[in-house]
Amino acid sequence: MPRDHVPPTGRTATRNAPQASDGSAQVPPLTDRPPPAEVPYLELLARDAPVEAYEQPVLLARAERHPADRITALEHAKLLALRVRSELEGRRRREAELSALFETAHDLAGLRDLDAVLQAIVQRARSLLGTDIAYLSLNDPAHGDTYMRVTEGSVSARFQQLRLGMGEGLGGLVAQTARPYVTDDYFHDARFQHTLTIDAGVRDEGLVAILGVPLMLGPHVIGVLFAADRRARVFERAQIALLGSFAALAAAALDTANLLTETRAAVAGLERANAIIRDGSAVIERASDVHDRLAELVLRGGGVHDVAAAVSEVLDGAVEFAGTGRAPARALEASRAEGHAVRHGDDWIAAVAAGGELLGALVLHGHPGLDPVDQRTLERAAMVTSLLLLARRSAAEAEQRVRGELLDDLLDAHDRDPRLLRERAGLLDADLDATHVVLAARLDGPADDADEEAAARRRLGAAASHLAATRHGLASARDGGTVLLLPLGPGDTATDVARRTARDLGTAVHQPVTVGASAPVTGLAGHPDAVTAAYAEGRRCLDAMHLLGRGGDGAAAEDFGFLGLLLAGERDIGGFVHRTIGPVVAYDARRGTELLRTLDAYFACAMSPARTKDALHVHVNTVAQRLERVGRLLGEDWQTPARSLEIQLALRLHRLTAPGVR
């Protein structure tokens, strides 16, 4: 042994001895022989030291000039120790991978939330592979593309919302071949199809190295699981295999979720079927119940409102009988034409018809969901209602004849005792002391033949009688049409009553009906001749409407402007003046202005403001301001030919009836 390789002893040996990790000197061996070369590396392995620490024993031996065979032994021990360390790390890594796979399989076994399981798979794949990002995409057969389902580590919103066409990008290559693919540098890899959309998303995310493995259900690719880095990287075989295992678990999770969804749907379908069967049984019982109730109603002479109440209870909804004027016209006509109840908003309408005549409808309110059996129940109730109405019509015809006879007496026999007239009207639920309107109604348009015309008149007479009975009035056939005496409701005008009557009668007979109305009349029992005069006025309005081409509508004398003076039984000059220039008269009276005088002068000067200012000896601006005020009072169309004619006539009549006004 060379002299400069004498083993250290004493203080020198202690000073030069290797130190432990805590800085204290290691205890020297009991003998002068150095410890075996494997000992320091066993200590390093025992405390899981980093790779760099395995160089220190060799460096220390060289520094202390140990023999060459000692250094060689240490080098050999180092290589063995590093190999053992690598094997241990691999085992730990595989243990972690197996643990992650086991946890994922456990999650899959207790699958409750598919999104949570997929998120856990992507998170674990990213963690074990040590990548910057991991994500999973699924195919969407309905749209023919692929979309991002789960991402982990992504920072780009555009990347997270990517939808890719089939066959595009690295994922398209994986889907086409059903094999894993990896690229070390995405943007310089020409093996797959690059698109602007995909490249923009990848560039936003800053990805470089990407690994993709297929999600397989049988032979079909349903998606791709990716792991990616924002730097160049080479993925090892073990990492590719690990990601493939996670992809298999993800596919299994999707398959399990689909099976669970199908199972739940099947169970829900069975539950719905059972519910339908139960509901059907209940509906059949209700139908039987309503049949028994309706039969009982018919046998004991019940009315339409009794039918509505019985059906309301059976259908668990509010059912009412509505006349032709109250039921929605379009839905009513559709129900009559189809022979079935029809839906109208949240309501159901079942037409009540007798032959070709509409009598009204049964309306089920607030019940949009109606099964076929309940719908048939409503239709059967409408049929029973029509039978009851037909039965009542026979009894009502006598009452209608009595109503017609009373109205005929009011029109023709002026010497009747007023007390007897009131008593007869009271028996018919009519009040002759109330304010009434006399209406003359006639069918509009020629009939195909005499029989059809006679049938149409009978329908009109029946509809008018029914309308009069429901409105506490009287009706009678006269002069090829019908005359009605109807009470005037609060807020109504003669025009309102005429138009409403024309609409209701036209709906009932399926043909336009024209109605002319008189001015309101009162005291009919004490002045029966007022009914005759009012009827003559209504007839004149009716004839005027036909001459003016307004068939199928309703109107009163007040609707014809100054022509109404000619049509009215009594010349209501004051009413015409008030309707035409009343606001101007009231304004002058209230403000002490001269708008009426200005209007007179304006029309006398051929509607020339310049000549008007000379006639009034005022400035032309004053004339313009007064005329502007008139326009605001009478409406912007006051200078049109028709309006100006009426205004000039009203001005003249006002001067004649109020001489003091100039």
Could you please describe the fold and organization of this structure?
- The chain is α+β, with helices and mostly antiparallel strands.
- It is 56% helix and 14% strand.
- It contains 22 helices and 15 strands.
- It has a 6-stranded antiparallel beta sheet, with helices on both faces.
- A hairpin with a 2-residue loop joins β8 and β9 (347-354).
- The radius of gyration is 51 Å and the shape is elongated.
The SS-based structural class is: alpha+beta
Total strands: 15
Helical content (DSSP H or I, runs of 4+): 55-70%
Strand order of the largest sheet: 3-2-1-6-5-4
Instruction: Identify low-pLDDT runs.
Output: 1-17, 19-25, 565-569
Rg over CA atoms, rounded to whole Å, is: 51 Å
Quaternary: single chain
User: What's the helix count?
Assistant: 22
Reported for the largest beta sheet, the result is:
6 strands, antiparallel
Query: Mean pLDDT, as a whole number?
Result: 78
Shape: elongated
